[in-house]
């Protein structure tokens, strides 16, 4: 009997799963902390009524689209820094992180001013006027948080690539109570603050995101484990080779994010064609789905780092273990979430809106129907997020971007529009289309990662020499 190859032994896979969990837990908790803040926003805004909730849905969708575009670009810092770290190249780590902050400034400023001018665009898109006014109030304050959101992602990627994700987690955890306190004070005019309603929610977010970025920047330049990398040293000096490398990898990542989130954002527009009730119900259901999605998103970020480190040390077997261990963890978690949502849709929807307010019953009934669809797509949503992360660890982003465009827009949007409007299923039909788009994209990503890593013929492109 021949002995099993070392890389095929169960204990090797168990060790990889443990290491992935160790890295993924703080990253997932970080994502959950971020979504916890937006969930508190929705819970409190919901107390103002369905019109305010509809306005927040439009405004938060726009800031989310701009922020994920910037975050997608700078997410290239994670695989490039991880590969440099795996190759024992601290200069490469510093160069990548520093240029990531340059990219932050480049993409955030135009986005900020675009967000401040979105009210006429929303009216042109035939959105309900009352929701557009609320969105304008919200965006006037929250737009200023955009550079801080993107910059925080650069610093978070820097720490994760060095197996130091916890500082960003501690900052996020500190931001949750601060955000809740500021929301309470500024939305409702409590604790001596003016009553600003949606504008108050936007201002609270900007204050908290500024606190998070500056706090993590201080830690990244002062802590004993990270300060030797001197990420701000000669910050004014351009490093065009690395700058271009970030864009080469980051643009397709941003494209994937924008393609996926764009179809969900356009779903809000389609809900607006149905009415304010549909927008509010969609916002509640997507918030629940977003909470569960944060865990596979964190696992996907861990997969990027683990795959990138294995690529940096030229370990093909390690690359496959990293990717498929992460995928297995995500499937287990999202299976449990699918069951939870399917069993308690009405209870989950009822957390976000006062049942005694006018129009609430209709919104909550529709939101519960959408959550049944969300329960059906939990597993494939987790799979596509994790495999996208594993492919980023291989610097493979362009072809996945094209596949995402086909999956989300041709399948997802096409089927959603057909079922929602041509067939007449309304909001539920739109969501069924979104679910099918997620499923088709997940199948492609898993298949591609398997094919790319099966031969073991992979080599990294060093970030510092690009």
How would you concisely characterize the structure shown here?
The protein has 466 residues and is mainly α. The protein has helices at 10-45, 50-74, 77-86, 90-115, 119-124, 129-142, 146-161, 166-188, 198-222, 240-274, 276-312, 316-343, 345-350, 360-393, 398-422, 426-454. The protein has one domain (11-465).
Q: Could you describe the 3D structure shown?
A:
The chain is globular. The protein starts with 9 loop residues before the first helix and ends in a 12-residue tail after the last helix. The protein is mostly helical. The chain has helices spanning 10-45, 50-74, 77-86, 90-115, 119-124, 129-142, 146-161, 166-188, 198-222, 240-274, 276-312, 316-343, 345-350, 360-393, 398-422, 426-454. The chain has one domain. The chain contains 16 helices and no strands. The model is unreliable at 462-466 (pLDDT under 50). α10 (240-274) packs parallel to α15 (398-422), α10 (240-274) packs antiparallel against α16 and α14 (360-393) packs parallel to α16.
Q: What structural keywords apply?
A:
mainly alpha, disordered C terminus, 16 helices, 466 residues, globular, 0% strand
